[in-house]
Amino acid sequence: MTADLVITGGTVVDGTGAAPYAADVAVTGGRITAIGTGLTGRRTLDATGHVVAPGFIDIHTHYDAQVFWDPALTPSCFHGVTTVVAGNCGFSIAPTRPEHHDVIARTLENVEDMDVATLAAGIPWDFVDFGEYLDSVERRGVGLNYTAYIGHTALRLYVMGMDAYERAADEAEITRMSEVLRAALRAGAAGFATSFAPTHRGIDGKPVPSRLADRAEIDALLAVVREERRGIVEFTPGEQLGVPDLYDIQPGVGVPFTYTALMTTPAGSHNRLVALNRAGWEKGAQVWPQVSPRPLTFSFSLVEPFTLNSNPAFGELMAGGVAERRSAYADPEFRKRARAAWEKEGAFLVPRWGTYLVDEAPANPDLVGRHLDAIAAERGGDPFDVLLDLALQEPDLGLRMRCILANDDVDALLGILTEEHCTLGLSDAGAHVGQLCDAPQATDFLGKWVRERSLMPIETAVRKLTGVQADLLGLTDRGYLRPDCWADIVVFDPATVAPGPVRRVRDFPADGERLTADQPTGIRHVIVNGTPIQVDGAREDEAGLPGQVVRVPVRG
After folding, report:
1. Residues 339, 341, 342, 348: is their CA dihedral positive or negative?
2. Cβ atoms of 488 and 5 closer than 8 Å
3. 405 falls in which pLDDT band (50, 70, 90)?
4. A Pfam family this protein belongs to (predicted)?
């Protein structure tokens, strides 16, 4: 039988972890119909010398808004990703009410570095409930397969209005939230996502609404997930609900949990989390920490210093503008309070000044590319003082710094990337677009870690990027190369695959700026639901938008 498409001459790595083998892959009607030798089709793609694998699944993105103005979902589409999960950390844009559109935009501005003007110009807001949101995406079309969590912050705003930013929910509100969550899951949401992270501050620097939820609210919402048996639950733990709590709660809920993120730190906290995860799994708790192969690196300006805003002194400035920040930065008392907060036991995200590098300094261009601690030593000052002094020399506080928050300990990272019950996540694609671009996570992992460091066999690496993720979500027909599965396929060269450069562009609505990585190496062909979107390393102009809105089913 002649297929619509045959990929010939490649080495199949099927997502199960099984050993690679030589075979052709035939596709008809958007699905895989045969894997074998001597297959024929109306169109043929050569894969000689390349790996033929399931398309990569990125479980941690924030494409909730970008999907409307960039349905190709760049730059993920360039890196072999064929399915994305949005709505992470509880920051979906549905359910919503018209009076809260600006609140959601301003929340996303502070927690995910999304431009309010871009959001206003790019989101159609032709939906209210979560099912209508998925319908809206589906009507417009999408280049990759797309699904999303219903987010806790959006859910609270929808039910409680602005009180969601102020207090715990009452019994009636919890009941209503449970009803809305149930409807979203039945409409096909990927699951439920929430955050308790101290870094997540929304409008005017206030804690995002999910951080005000009490245990009664959390338990009620998780009970709905247990009853519906759909998708997974994604957490960003914090003070109200910590990582150890997840291992106690998950067995009673049934669906897997995942959390953001297990990263290496100088304090060695990752060792405790690895031990906790191993012990939890031994007791039957299915909790999957998300790990990343890339150092967590931010490029930020002192106008909106995301990495510093978890410090209460900086957090108080989020309600103001440049004038308020300028006044505070010049105030010795402000500097004293900020230092005191970092000196407290258990302080979160204490800066490592040795990782700070000057990215942009219009008033001091000779400093670009230099480390802050070296500049401070040269000037005989303290790095924090020098940082603020340099910012004050810019008329608009336009000093841009680059810093590493975590995950730069290579030896420790080698260990957590090979942990059996950890999953690759935290690409954050679609978020922090002016500060980082970790969408190339898959190509970085395959290049830097699998090829260059021989961290694991190629079949194990591909399984981490595909089958493991599909199983977590409860998808039975994606993440694998086998007959009847949707033909989401990536063909890559294991000898050259790499993420390529990151560059800054202005291509978003309202002249929005972002970082992108659209020039990877080694990605030859990408097929979504049987339609090639990239052939021989170039975009297929005639591909259209072959992605599907994936509505996550009830678990078997």
Report:
1. negative
2. no
3. very high
4. Amidohydro_3
Secondary structure element (H or E) that encloses residue 247, with its range: helix 243-253
233-274 pLDDT, tens digit each: 999 999 889 999 999 999 999 999 999 999 998 888 999 999
Q: Are 524 and 47 in contact (CB under 8 A)?
A: yes
What's the Cα-to-Cα distance from 254 to each of 97, 112, 233, rounded to whole Å? 32, 30, 10
- Work out the number of other CB atoms within 10 angstroms of the CB of residue 48: 8
pLDDT of residue 347: 84
Pair 419, 291: CB distance under 8 Å: yes
> What angle is formed at CA 390 by the lines to CA 207 and CA 336, rounded to 5 degrees?
50
Retrieve residue 109's tokens.
């501005």
Counting every residue, how long is the chain?
556
Higher pLDDT, 525 or 199: 525
Question: In sequence order, what DSSP letters do the residues of 528-540 get, joined into one string?
Answer: ETTEEEEETTEE-
What residue has token string 């805003």? 309
Decide if 443 contacts 497 (C-beta within 8 A): yes
Pinpoint the alpha helices (H) of 344-455.
Answer: 372-379, 383-392, 410-417, 441-444
CA angle 459, 464, 465 (to 5 degrees): 100
| Closest residue by Cα to residue 336 from 310, 313, 316, 304 | 313
Q: Smallest Cα–Cα separation from 101: which of 80, 85, 89, 116?
A: 116
Would you say residue 1 has pLDDT above 80? no
Q: Taking the mean position of all CA atoms in its chain, how far away is CA 372?
A: 29
Q: What is the 3-state secondary structure (H, E, C) of 141-156?
A: CCCCEEEECEEHHHHH
Radius of gyration of the chain measured on its C-alpha atoms? 23
Tens digit of each residue's pLDDT (9 = 90 or more) over 70-125:
999 999 999 999 999 999 999 999 999 999 999 999 999 999 999 999 999 999 99
52 burial type by CB count under 10 A (0-12 exposed, 13-18 middle, 19+ buried): buried
Q: Which residues are CB-neighbours of 511 under 8 A, at least 6 positions away?
A: none
Domains defined for the chain, CATH in brackets: 56-295+407-516 (3.20.20.140), 298-405 (no CATH)
**pLDDT of amino acid 349:** 87
Cβ contact 517:437 at 8 Å: yes
Long-range contacts of 246-251 (CB under 8 A, 24+ apart): 246/280, 246/285, 246/287, 247/276, 247/277, 247/279, 247/280, 247/283, 247/285, 247/287, 248/285, 249/222, 250/280, 250/285, 250/286, 250/287, 251/283, 251/284, 251/285, 251/286
For residues 448 and 454, what is the distance between their CA atoms, to the nearest angstrom?
A: 9
Place of tokens 């074998």: 36
DSSP state of 371: B
